[in-house]
Write a sequence for this structure.
C-alpha cells in the first residue's frame, strides 16, 4: 500500500480504521508511479492536443486582458536545464532564448501570433512558447508551449 495511505490510516482513531480500510485500499490501489523515461511533459496545457489557432489566440487574449506583456521564447531541447550551478541564486538555464524583445504595448493577440509564425519559420526544429510577464510584480505569470517541432510528440 502507498505510504500516504498508510499514514492516513495510522493517524485515524482505531474505531475508524476498520471502516475506512476498504475505501483507502481501493483509492490507493489506483495510484500510479510517474513513468520517468519517455514521458516528457512541459508546462501548462502540455497534456492537451496541440492548440488550434483560435485556442492560441484566446490564451494570448487572456494574458493581454490581465495586463501581462507577451514574450516569445524558443529552445531546441524544449526544457529548462542547468549547465552551471555554482552557487545559490545563480539563474543560468531558467529561461529559454527570447525571440526579439518582449512585446511591450501589444494589444492584439494576432500581433503575437504573427511573431510566433516568424519565429517558427526561423527555427522550425525548436520548441516555441508564449509567456506573459507582469512588469509590476516582476514575475512570469503564464507560460505555455505554442509549437512543438515535428517528431517531438
Amino acid at each position: 500500500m502507498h505510504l500516504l495511505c498508510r499514514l492516513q490510516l495510522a493517524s485515524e482513531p482505531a474505531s475508524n480504521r476498520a471502516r475506512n480500510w476498504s475505501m483507502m485500499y481501493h483509492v490507493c490501489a489506483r495510484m500510479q508511479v510517474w513513468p520517468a523515461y519517455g514521458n516528457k511533459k512541459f508546462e501548462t496545457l502540455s497534456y492537451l492536443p496541440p492548440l488550434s489557432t483560435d485556442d492560441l489566440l484566446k490564451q494570448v487574449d487572456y494574458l493581454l486582458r490581465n495586463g501581462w506583456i507577451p514574450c516569445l521564447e524558443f529552445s531546441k531541447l524544449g526544457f529548462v536545464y542547468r549547465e552551471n550551478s555554482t552557487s545559490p541564486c545563480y539563474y543560468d538555464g531558467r529561461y529559454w532564448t527570447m525571440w526579439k524583445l518582449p512585446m511591450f504595448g501589444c494589444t492584439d493577440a494576432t500581433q503575437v501570433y504573427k511573431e510566433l509564425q516568424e519565429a517558427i519559420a526561423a527555427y522550425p526544429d525548436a520548441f516555441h512558447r508564449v509567456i506573459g510577464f507582469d512588469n509590476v510584480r516582476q514575475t512570469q505569470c503564464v507560460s505555455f508551449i505554442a509549437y512543438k517541432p515535428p517528431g517531438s510528440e
Q: What stands out?
A: The mean pLDDT is 79. Residues 1-30 form one domain.
